[in-house]
Design brief:
Length: about 280
């Protein structure tokens, strides 16, 4: 009988649990290889002014090429990177490479929109993070006002002195902050005034439910919009997939929109030609 015998502990895992562990282990190894061999890449999702539909920003999204081929994206590998502490290296890699691209994009097109970069909540416990960020930004000579960090609502822990300090250090550098996936956490709305944030990104599940028969969910987007206006926060709706959703968001005065209806995340060269004015046609 294996009971109580540490060496046979694996027997207590179900097949499914064992597979899950194996998968996590494989993903962790793939992420280490990606860091060593530079298999990470970035794609760019355009963000549009809700009324004029001009491109006003780009959300930077990471891909691990060796995992992408297996259909494994950041939704799956970022949590594993967080557990294994690889996320710190990945976040810095993303910031460094995004800054290099931002400089290139500005030189090629004069783009003055924001670069919105997702940052793991893990960084809010990492006192070294703001100084590292400053070093990277300075080394590229980028204006910090063009950078926004997106942090999921659930990671914003305000009662923790350390995370508050880190957030305000980032903001003091001139970087703006967005609460990502807003509405999925448990922020008391009255607390919003205390958040060192500039922007709310309405989680795409709410946009998806805009015309749902469930009135409470249907109304969420408008409630968040009103609230954000009250507190002077920019509102970005993510996950816009239909014309009807876009028109509703225009009607209620949402600021920015992004989603498959407007543009997929694009690789660098496609994004560049989307933003470049068509030189030969211009008069
Ligand atoms: P997020 O920041 O909420 O990013 C939006 C995700 O929703 C992206 O998936 C994007 O492709 C997808 N999306 C955007 N518009 C639509 C739409 O209209 N319909 C649908 N169905 N999906 C849409 P992606 O690239 O797989 O990223 C997933 C999550 O992984 C991100 O969620 C973010 O939390 C995290 N992530 C992505 N890149 C990075 C990164 O560089 N660093 C860190 N720390 N996290 C990242
Ligand atoms: Mg995001
Ligand atoms: Mg989001
Ligand atoms: Mg999301």
């Amino acid at each position: 009988q294996a009971k109580g015998n540490g060496r046979n502990r694996l027997e207590y895992f179900s097949d499914e649990q064992a597979r899950e562990l194996r998968d996590q282990d494989l993903i962790e190894r793939a992420l280490r290889v990606s860091l060593q061999q530079n298999y990470f890449s970035l794609v760019y999702m355009p963000m549009f002014d809700c009324q004029t539909l001009e491109i006003v920003g780009l959300e930077v999204l990471v891909r691990a090429e060796n995992l992408q081929r297996l259909g494994i994206g950041p939704d799956r590998f970022i949590p594993i990177a967080e557990k294994t502490n690889l996320i710190k290296e990945i976040d810095l890699w993303v910031i460094d490479n995004a800054m290099a691209r931002l400089v290139e994009l500005q030189a090629a097109t004069g783009f003055m929109g924001k670069f919105c970069i997702n940052i793991s909540g893990v960084e809010l416990c990492n006192e070294l993070f703001p100084a590292k960020v400053k070093e990277i930004i300075d080394s590229h000579g980028v204006d910090p006002c063009l950078i926004e960090f997106e942090i999921t609502e659930t990671a914003f822990v305000l009662d923790d002195i350390k995370s508050r300090t880190i957030l305000s250090e980032l903001r003091n550098l001139g970087i703006s902050l967005a609460l990502d996936d807003f509405g999925t956490g448990f922020t008391a709305f009255s607390q919003l005034i205390n958040y060192p944030a500039d922007c709310l990104k309405i989680d795409r599940s709410f946009v998806n439910d805009l015309f749902s028969v469930d009135v409470a969910r249907h109304k969420m987007v408008r409630i968040i919009e009103d609230l954000a206006e009250l507190y002077g926060l920019r509102v970005v709706a993510e996950g816009v997939e239909t014309k009807e959703q876009l028109e509703y968001l225009q009607e209620i005065g949402c600021d920015w929109v992004q989603g498959y209806y407007l543009s997929l995340p694009l690789p660098w060269h496609e994004m560049l030609s989307l933003i470049s004015p068509p030189a030969s046609v211009a008069k």
